């Protein structure tokens, strides 16, 4: 048996098209374009590439992109002052500070300074709390993108056994919360988990967010399970995921790397920015 390959690239481009259509409605109703401010500190090459792609996607969705590039040695208070200005700026619906920040800057202070209602990355503890307690807020883009792909395969996730491998604040933990909210029975696993494969073997749904190339093996997987590979690992062999490619021989559905979860992240960021603008303007959205 060979798994259905979940085409994240195609799903993301359709999502972006839906977002662009809804942006046009918000513009017509409010008379202004939704705006996303992206702050980049320093010149880390990977971060620069991400920031450029986010800016391009924002413009392509018909929204306003505000890019702020600060030098690597900027004072923490200067960055905080910029966040304060963006919080107060009515043209800005979403604020994203590209991580990681240089070591002399306290990342937590910066993230918690962002107005939770403009925190389209969903990293502010207020949004983590809203997710955990079932209140509307912003959910981190990567796990929300994973959930959208999963729901395309399983429109009703209720009662399914889900195992999340990894417990980071930006992927693993919010992924677990999202699956719990869908009434899955969720097992969170991490580097201290004993007999990881025994947990994975019971799962109908496996989400791997570990950061180790090819970590999840085919003989761990229950035949027919759905496997979401969040990993993006740069190796000599190119870009590879956290899931061994032979898992596709056992799973029922699987996301490829590249072309699975990766393209979803920016598409969901566009959606979160649209949602923020619609809320602020009192415009209701289709989905
Ligand atoms: P982190 O390094 O923050 O977290 C990795 C998690 O994996 C930790 O919770 C860690 O456990 C766990 N882990 C490490 N080793 C093992 C092990 N041997 N067994 C079980 N669990 C283990 O990574 P992120 O969550 O930020 O990212 C994970 C992957 O997803 C990376 O490859 C990253 O590049 C990718 N990524 C992709 C995105 C996308 O857009 N597609 C966006 C964000 C990330 P512990 O907590 O105990 O240390």
Automatic annotation (TrEMBL):
Pfam families linked to this entry: THF_DHG_CYH, THF_DHG_CYH_C
InterPro entries (UniProt xref): Aminoacid_DH-like_N_sf, NAD(P)-bd_dom_sf, THF_DH/CycHdrlase, THF_DH/CycHdrlase_cat_dom, THF_DH/CycHdrlase_CS, THF_DH/CycHdrlase_NAD-bd_dom
Residues annotated as domain Tetrahydrofolate dehydrogenase/cyclohydrolase catalytic: 6-121
Catalyses which reaction(s): (6R)-5,10-methylene-5,6,7,8-tetrahydrofolate + NADP(+) = (6R)-5,10-methenyltetrahydrofolate + NADPH; (6R)-5,10-methenyltetrahydrofolate + H2O = (6R)-10-formyltetrahydrofolate + H(+)
GO BP field: L-histidine biosynthetic process; methionine biosynthetic process; purine nucleotide biosynthetic process; tetrahydrofolate interconversion
Keyword presence, Hydrolase: yes
Any Gene Ontology CC annotation: cytosol
Keywords annotated in UniProt: Amino-acid biosynthesis, Histidine biosynthesis, Hydrolase, Methionine biosynthesis, Multifunctional enzyme, NADP, One-carbon metabolism, Oxidoreductase, Purine biosynthesis
Hydrolase among keywords: yes
UniProt pathway annotation: One-carbon metabolism; tetrahydrofolate interconversion
A GO molecular-function annotation: methenyltetrahydrofolate cyclohydrolase activity
Domain Tetrahydrofolate dehydrogenase/cyclohydrolase NAD(P)-binding: 140-279
Its EC number(s): 1.5.1.5, 3.5.4.9
Residues reported to bind NADP(+): 166-168, 232
HAMAP family: THF_DHG_CYH
Function: Catalyzes the oxidation of 5,10-methylenetetrahydrofolate to 5,10-methenyltetrahydrofolate and then the hydrolysis of 5,10-methenyltetrahydrofolate to 10-formyltetrahydrofolate.
Family: Belongs to the tetrahydrofolate dehydrogenase/cyclohydrolase family.
Subunit structure: Homodimer.
Protein name (record): Bifunctional protein FolD
């Amino acid at each position: 048996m060979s798994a259905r390959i979940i085409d994240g690239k195609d799903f993301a481009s359709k999502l972006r098209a839906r977002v662009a259509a809804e942006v046009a409605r918000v513009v017509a109703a409010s008379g202004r374009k939704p705006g996303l401010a992206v702050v980049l500190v320093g010149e880390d090459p990977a971060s620069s590439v991400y920031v450029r792609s986010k800016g391009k996607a924002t413009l392509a969705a018909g929204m306003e992109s505000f890019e702020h590039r600060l030098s690597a040695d900027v004072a923490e208070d200067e960055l905080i002052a910029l966040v304060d200005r963006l919080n107060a700026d009515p043209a800005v619906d979403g604020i994203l500070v590209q991580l990681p920040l240089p070591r002399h800057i306290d990342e937590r202070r910066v993230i918690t300074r962002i107005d939770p209602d403009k925190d389209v990355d969903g990293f502010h503890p207020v949004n983590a709390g809203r997710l955990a307690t079932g209140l509307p807020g912003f959910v981190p883009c990567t796990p929300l993108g994973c959930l959208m792909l999963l729901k395309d395969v399983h429109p009703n996730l209720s009662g399914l056994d889900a195992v999340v491998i990894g417990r980071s604040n930006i992927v693993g933990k919010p992924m677990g919360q999202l699956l719990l909210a869908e009434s899955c029975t969720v097992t969170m696993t991490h580097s201290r988990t004993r007999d990881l494969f025994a947990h994975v073997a019971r799962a109908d749904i496996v989400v791997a967010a570990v950061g180790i190339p090819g970590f999840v093996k085919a003989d761990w997987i229950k035949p027919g399970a759905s496997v979401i590979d969040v990993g993006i690992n740069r190796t000599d062999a190119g870009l590879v995921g956290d899931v061994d490619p032979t898992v596709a021989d056992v799973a029922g559905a699987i996301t490829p790397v590249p072309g699975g979860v990766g393209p979803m992240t920016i598409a969901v960021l566009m959606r979160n920015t649209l949602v923020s603008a619609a809320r602020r303007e009192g415009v209701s959205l289709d989905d």
